[in-house]
Amino acid sequence: MTFTQIALDIDGPIATITLDREAKLNAFTGTMMEELIAAFDLTDANDAVRAVIVTGRGRAFCAGADLSAGAATFDYEKLAGGKRSGPVREDGSVDYTHEAVRDGGGRVTMRIFKSLKPVIAAVNGPAVGIGVTMQLAMDVRMASESARFGFVFARRGIVPEAGSSWFLSKLVGLPQALEWCMTGRVFGAEEALKGGLVRSVHAADDLLPAARALALEIAENTAPVSVAMTRQMLWRMAGAASPWDAHRLDSRAIYARGRAGDAKEGVVSFLEKRAPAYPDKVSSDMPDFYPWWEEERYY
Description:
By secondary structure, the protein is α/β, with parallel strands linked by helices. It folds into 2 domains: 6-218, 2-enoyl-CoA Hydratase, Chain A, domain 1 (Alpha-Beta Complex); 222-294, Orthogonal Bundle (Lyase 2-enoyl-coa Hydratase, Chain  A, domain 2), CATH 1.10.12. The chain contains 11 helices and 9 strands. Strands 1-2-3-4-6-9 form a 6-stranded mixed beta sheet, with helices on both faces. Strands 5-7-8 form a 3-stranded mixed beta sheet. It is globular, with a radius of gyration of 20 Å. The two termini are 39 Å apart. The model has no long low-confidence stretch (mean pLDDT 93).
């Protein structure tokens, strides 16, 4: 696929996705949405890719939604030319179950949420609106000293999107999430670090090398199927009603993984004091009960 608003570069086991509208501070568009989803489809399908880094071109990570449509930016019906089609019924009421009602930022975060590879955000500059909420479905956020964040939705007359009402409080706690979202203010990297939004703050030139070092630590030491399963288990159990839900899932996963070649290689390589060479592949060797959340009952 040819990308026009992002770049996808694969170097060894690491894929780097770069938001690539530098002149517009990498503002988010429908095209960028589609390209990000396609990029994660490609990284999931490529067994050579063991981790994904997401960053921005130039001085910004992502300045939020492209506001070039002015007052109609968030009015999807007006953007469609005022035609009463899609979710708008003949009587003017809205069918909120219609696919066209879905939030574009949420389409991206739901795709990142499904990723089989760990995802690291290298936040190189301003990240507001969807620029920050798209990061919440990523596993680790690292920021440059010049990074700035803002959940500015209430200041634009809208509400948090991209699944952030689920993700944010799990990452930083409800009181902090409420303060940032209700004030809509923009804050710096140090406040993001103190509030638990980012893992670390780096000098600008050190950010991508630090992100790559973490990605390589994962790629060089862990079994890819185990990482893929672990990522999904931890994220999806974050909303479980009881630890029994986790116990049921853990039991399945340990049983399945214990029979696989990776478990044998993990133990033998440790005993032989050598680097592991895990045989199982994400593309073909996920446990037979995966994806368990699509079952009515997974126990």
